[in-house]
């Protein structure tokens, strides 16, 4: 039906060029008038424009008042600002924030409530498109996509982890797309066929699953007292990149350390799925100066035009386990079901101990504040020197309630703005830059005819005020307008 409407629209538009009248026939459409549309590409703001959608697509954007026929709803956007829906290019939608697998089994009612609210929580803060960068529970991706009201969801195909490495801690883990690397100091189990775990086989299988990303990892581990995880060789990474591109996949790689970023800059991967906050032997001091070795690695990433996700909230979310007042934040009531929020409050000390043991909270908080500042400095250097910044939060990144869905993205934006990233850049990276990096620009990233009808109607100008992203009047998802309050977990 949408293709027929699009063809009809094209014909009618050609005719209207001669008659100076734009006539559009829609079915299940939307007419927005008096629209101030912000372009994420050049930051221009049109005034008194009209937008017409049909089904889930934008079919007209222009100054001329269209003559719309058929079934449609009219919205007067006078005094408001229209931007494309936001894209979070690094999420994990299949777990329950801060709950282990055992806790999920013990509290199925909390899991059910969380999963029902999850897509609405992302929409509440304007995230109309998500990219899941890895899951051990692919069936839950299907469950998410069955939700009536939800963001558009894309995904990486199961995670091309290195055999016996980070993300595959033992051979009993169910990660079907692990990549076998020759000459590692571990035996390959007889239960697997090596030919099924080559870069060629894994990339082909991931592409056939419908994924748009091949996600792999460079992670030697977080505890220097423990043996290192196996990490990919340059030859293996080169082969993964070649096979990913052969299958029209984006190569995104986990890595947050100086060692990882140095390796991946040399490999010229497509996307660094984390910022450089782990500086190895370097530590941020009172001078707040970026060490030369850090600059050199970031310069290499800039030169290679590697997409760089700062993911500042990974560190901040862990730090919130030390903050007794965090769970009293009323914003959480919009994105978390009350019973789950109550569970977090009752078990916050246990959750802290599960992650940090008996370590004093003030010491943990101090260390994470320093690491967070290191991440911000790296991000600012990338921005100031022409780096390719992308918006991704890694929500939720670890067993913490400090990365709530949707709200975590808004907090990431606040951190970026506070660190000196221009507001126009934040808008671009969360829309058109993400769309381009993940080959989705034909359908997302700008407000144009032919794009997906995923729009935000804001009460403030996001180029002047970062809090505009928390002052949303309506969310339009797949052509369906929704008042923001209807998406809240506590709308009643």
TrEMBL record:
Name of the protein in its database record: Amidohydrolase
Any Pfam family matching the protein: Amidohydro_1
Signal peptide: none
GO MF annotation, one: hydrolase activity, acting on carbon-nitrogen (but not peptide) bonds
Domain Amidohydrolase-related: from-to ranges: 81-480
PROSITE patterns: PROKAR_LIPOPROTEIN
PANTHER family attached to this UniProt entry: ALPHA-D-RIBOSE 1-METHYLPHOSPHONATE 5-TRIPHOSPHATE DIPHOSPHATASE
Highest taxon, organism lineage: Bacteria
Record-linked SUPFAM superfamilies: Composite domain of metallo-dependent hydrolases, Metallo-dependent hydrolases
């Amino acid at each position: 039906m949408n293709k027929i409407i699009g063809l009809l629209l094209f014909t009618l538009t050609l005719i209207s060029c001669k008659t100076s009248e734009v006539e559009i026939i829609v079915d299940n459409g939307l007419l927005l008038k008096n629209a101030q549309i912000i372009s994420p590409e050049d930051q221009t703001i049109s005034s008194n424009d009209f937008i017409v959608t049909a089904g889930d697509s934008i079919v007209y954007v222009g100054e001329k008042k269209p003559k719309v026929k058929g079934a449609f709803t009219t919205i007067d956007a006078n005094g408001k600002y229209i931007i494309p829906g936001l894209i979070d290019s690094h999420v994990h939608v299949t777990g329950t924030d801060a709950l282990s697998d055992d806790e999920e089994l013990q509290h199925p009612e909390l899991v059910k409530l969380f999963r029902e609210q999850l897509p609405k929580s992302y929409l509440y803060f304007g995230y109309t498109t998500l990219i899941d960068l890895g899951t051990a529970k692919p069936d839950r991706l299907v469950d998410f996509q069955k939700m009536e009201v939800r963001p558009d969801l894309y995904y990486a195909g199961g995670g091309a982890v290195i055999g016996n490495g980070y993300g595959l801690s033992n051979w009993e883990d169910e990660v079907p797309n692990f990549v076998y690397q020759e000459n590692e100091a571990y035996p390959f189990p007889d239960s697997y066929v090596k030919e099924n775990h080559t870069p060629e086989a894994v990339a082909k299988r991931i592409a056939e699953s419908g994924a748009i990303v091949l996600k792999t990892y460079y992670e030697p581990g977080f505890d220097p007292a423990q043996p290192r995880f196996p990490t990919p060789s340059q030859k293996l990474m080169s082969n993964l990149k070649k096979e990913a591109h052969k299958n029209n996949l984006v190569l995104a790689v986990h890595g947050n350390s100086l060692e990882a970023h140095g390796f991946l800059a040399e490999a010229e991967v497509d996307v660094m799925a984390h910022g450089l906050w782990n500086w190895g032997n370097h530590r941020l001091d009172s001078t707040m100066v970026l060490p030369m070795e850090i600059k050199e690695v970031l310069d290499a990433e800039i030169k290679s035009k590697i997409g760089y996700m700062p993911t500042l909230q990974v560190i901040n979310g862990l730090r919130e386990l030390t903050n007794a007042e965090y769970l009293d934040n009323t914003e959480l009531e919009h994105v978390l079901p009350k019973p789950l929020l109550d569970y977090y409050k009752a078990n916050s000390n246990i959750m802290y101990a599960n992650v940090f043991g008996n370590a004093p909270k003030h010491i943990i908080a101090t260390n994470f504040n320093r690491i967070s500042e290191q991440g911000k400095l790296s991000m600012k250097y990338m921005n100031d020197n022409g780096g390719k910044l992308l918006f991704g939060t890694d929500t939720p990144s670890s067993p913490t309630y400090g990365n709530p869905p949707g709200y975590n993205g808004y907090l990431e934006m606040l951190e970026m703005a506070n660190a000196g990233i221009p507001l126009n850049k934040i808008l671009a990276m969360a829309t058109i830059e993400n769309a381009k990096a993940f080959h989705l620009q034909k359908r997302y990233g700008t407000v144009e005819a032919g794009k997906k009808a995923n729009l935000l109607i804001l009460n403030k100008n996001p180029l002047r005020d970062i809090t505009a992203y928390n002052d949303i009047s309506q969310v339009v998802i797949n052509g369906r307008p929704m008042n923001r309050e209807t998406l809240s977990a506590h709308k009643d």
